[in-house]
Specification:
The protein is an alpha/beta fold and 363 residues long. Helix content is 32%, strand content 19%. It has one domain: 3-Layer(aba) Sandwich (Rossmann fold). The protein is globular and about 55 Å long.
């Protein structure tokens, strides 16, 4: 595992140490985060099932619910989009400032997504640790305007909603986590929309999400043409004519790249240079640091598969290290032995890290 703080946080630079983890499935209590990652104690990690109290609000209006009365959620629809989220509250009494909340994003190549097993399973694990969750459904992310009106608006609505008003959730203790394209959603939120929107993101986890939309297209468009990229930013991929491991099985790398580019371009209604520039995490952090606002970038933990042909780990780990160091922000990343599409349990230490950050900021 690598970690860093850009020379600013948690007592200065750290020497990077890389660890690999077998992609086995386990509970948070099976493994704990090394002490070097923690600056404060994390509450004991529970494994028992808990019930959850539930209230239902739709666009901030009380409504009757057919859900289990022993559970709670808040459903909110962002303006001008079909995005929505359901907030699930842990059992028990909320901290004085309200429950911390992690917003969870599944992924489908920038296409529309709703509930999915990966986010749902992570939600269950977080609720057991006293962290409220919100699994976000969102439309095709065709441009930065859609991103703001669907993704950012959902977080803003939650921060200004009934649960926040009644002190049940804490908008100053929000976190994010996403899988695949949902990992990009997480990364872009941490870079561009972490503070100043009515809430504060304390950190987030990207599970095999690409860091930068522009870089992802540059790499896979080159591979699709049978050309292994020579740009140092894109280094670390495989020969386009070699066999890659994909979620559906082995395939020639160039064919796999061509298929992915076609699908993502379709979901985005085209991927022009201008559109990709506007969704570039690199551009965002370059602008923030140039204007002395690098502190606006929130901490990140990247989780990547060693045999992932969708999201090349070497490229994305290098971008996290470069960009978050540039901003002076905390970062961590880990490589697990496996391909694209794993569950959160390939990196329980990333979840422990996020739980610790949120718990400290909600006390």
């Amino acid at each position: 595992m690598f970690s860093g703080n850009g020379g600013r946080r948690n007592g200065g630079d750290r020497s990077p140490v890389k660890r690999r983890h077998e992609p086995r499935f386990e509970t948070l209590s099976d493994r704990t985060l090394p002490a070097t990652f923690m600056s404060a104690a994390v509450p004991p990690l529970a494994t028992e099932d808990r019930s959850h109290s539930r209230e239902k609000f739709h666009e901030f209006e009380a409504a009757s619910s057919t859900a289990n009365p022993n559970e709670t959620h808040e459903s909110q629809v962002a303006p001008f989009s079909n995005a929505s989220a359901t907030i699930n509250l842990p059992h028990g009494t909320a901290p004085a400032g309200g429950w911390p909340v992690v917003f969870l994003f599944n992924g489908d190549g920038m296409g529309a997504v709703g509930d999915g097993a990966q986010a749902a399973n992570l939600s269950k694990a977080l609720l057991k640790q006293g962290i409220a969750t919100a699994v976000v459904s969102y439309p095709n992310l065709v441009n930065v305007d859609t991103f703001e009106k669907s993704i950012v608006a959902v977080l803003q609505n939650a921060a200004g909603g009934r649960l926040a008003e009644y002190g049940k959730i804490n908008p100053q203790a929000f976190g994010v986590a996403g899988f695949s394209a949902g990992g990009f959603v997480t990364t872009f939120l941490l870079a561009k929309y972490a503070h100043g929107y009515g809430y504060d993101l304390q950190g987030g986890i990207s599970f095999y999400g690409f860091v930068d939309t522009k870089t992802w297209f540059e790499y896979h468009r080159s591979e699709a043409k049978g050309i292994l990229p020579t740009d140092p930013v894109l280094a670390g991929g495989k020969d386009p004519n070699s066999i890659c491991f994909t979620p559906r099985g082995p395939a020639r790398c160039r064919d796999h790249s061509a298929e992915m580019v076609s699908v993502v371009e379709s979901h985005m209604a085209g991927a022009s240079a201008a559109k990709l520039e506007s969704l570039s995490t690199t551009n965002v952090i370059d602008e923030l640091t140039a204007s002395g606002r690098g502190s606006q970038v929130a901490p990140i933990f990247g989780v990547f598969g060693s045999n992932d042909s969708n999201i090349v780990p070497a490229i994305n780990e290098r971008q996290i290290r470069t960009l978050w160091s540039q901003a002076g922000a905390e970062y961590h990343y880990v490589t697990y032995n496996g391909t694209h599409g794993a569950e959160w349990s390939v990196s329980p230490e990333s979840v422990t890290w996020l739980v610790g950050r949120l718990s400290r900021n909600s006390a």
